[in-house]
Amino acid sequence: MAHIELTWIPDQTFLGVDSTNHSIVLSPGGGVGVKPSETLLIALASCSAVDLVEILKKQRSTLHRLIITVDGEQDADPPWRYRRISLRYRVTATGATLDKVQRAVDLALNRYCSVRSSLHPEIDVTFQVELSQPDQE
Question: Do 100 and 60 fall within a single domain?
């Protein structure tokens, strides 16, 4: 079972600590921490990244670099629900083809990622993949 503890720090700042004692500072926009709604985007990217790295390893690809950028479109009015989330995976690897990496991303994001699976099905989640070789950076 997942377990976190969130502690209020004066003003609008909070300290979140996970079950392995790792922490993150959160605050609304303009504060000293990560915006709570954007932690969802970070969680989605990192959740898919964990499995993507393992899938590429099983494909016998050598990963040199992985950068994931995420754009989320939210409603203009409260509760500012996400309507669309777009992920861009920039992968630098040897021994990989674009088709294999796209399939790996699809599996990592849409089959194995618990964060993606937990999102409301009406949220439009899309991705694109860019693959380069280490000497092309």
Answer: yes
